[in-house]
Write a structure and sequence with these properties.
- The complex is a heterodimer of chains A (112) and B (112).
- In chain A, strands 2, 4, 5, 6, 9, 10 and 11 form a 7-stranded mixed β-sheet that branches.
- Chain A is 0% helix and 50% strand.
- Chain A is mainly beta.
- Chain A contains no helices and 11 strands.
- Chain B is built from no helices and 11 strands.
- Chain B is mainly beta.
- In chain B, a hairpin with a 6-residue loop joins strand 4 and strand 5.
- In chain B, the strands form 2 sheets. In chain B, strands 2, 4, 5, 9, 10 and 11 form a 6-stranded mixed β-sheet that branches. In chain B, strands 1-3-8-7-6 form a 5-stranded antiparallel β-sheet, with no helix packed on it.
Chain lengths: 112, 112
């Protein structure tokens, strides 16, 4: 069964450093998403991406965040200058129809 | 008011019990409805979609009442493996993609 994959599984970084989280969506899917979940809190939408551009972004997704689909398979989330409060699980998701979304296993980001 | 509100939980039930979860949503323009389950420190996994006509998948039955903006999930004959956090999820159309809005989840523990 096809699945969304994410790397790395755990990223530790110093405050102020840049991080890039990587995702490989399911191959025939057209809609891509990033969500985050701070420990003990609910899953929150960050951004959706379709047709090589951002479709929608939340208030969380400020100028420190960017997304890119550098090739036909990868979908990345970049945080330019990490803050302590960026520590969270980051989930990538993809969808073929824009409706049902399938999640990757997540990257745990720890900012020290 | 929270966009998606769920039973506070936690629910601790014996194996074989029937348990019901409730959820309300505030955005009347919400278009699709789902139950996801999330195991500790794992990604959300789609359990089932929810339709106004009601739908059943084995021991799981989901129901949607659009007029009341209410969603339910019934689990019959609980198994130990049902222990997880159950997330009520609604979508709204945002741009070309659909953004998932998650409830905070209800934790279920099935006891032997």
């Amino acid at each position: 069964e096809p699945e969304v994959t994410q790397t790395p599984s755990h990223q530790v970084t110093q405050m102020g450093q840049e991080v890039i989280l990587r995702c490989v969506p399911i191959s025939n899917h057209l809609y891509f998403y990033w969500y985050r979940q701070i420990l003990g809190q609910k899953v929150e939408f960050l951004v959706s991406f379709y047709n090589n551009e951002i479709s929608e972004k939340s208030e969380i997704f400020d100028d420190q965040f960017s997304v890119e689909r550098p090739d036909g398979s990868n979908f990345t989330l970049k945080i330019r200058s990490t803050k302590l409060e960026d520590s969270a699980m980051y989930f990538c998701a993809s969808s073929d129809s824009g409706d049902t979304q399938y999640f990757g296993p997540g990257t745990r980001l720890t900012v020290l | 008011r929270k966009e998606v509100e769920q039973d506070p939980g936690p629910f601790n039930v014996p194996e074989g019990a029937t348990v019901a979860f409730n959820c309300t949503y505030s955005n009347s323009a919400s278009q699709s409805f789902f139950w996801y389950r999330q195991d500790c420190r794992k990604e959300p996994k789609l359990l089932m979609s929810v339709y106004s006509s009601g739908n059943e998948d084995g021991r799981f039955t989901a129901q949607l009442n659009r007029a009341s903006q209410y969603i339910s999930l019934l689990i019959r004959d609980s198994k130990l493996s049902d222990s997880a956090t159950y997330l009520c999820v609604v979508t709204s159309l945002s741009g070309s993609a659909r953004q998932l809005t998650f409830g905070s989840g209800t934790q279920l523990t099935v006891l032997p």
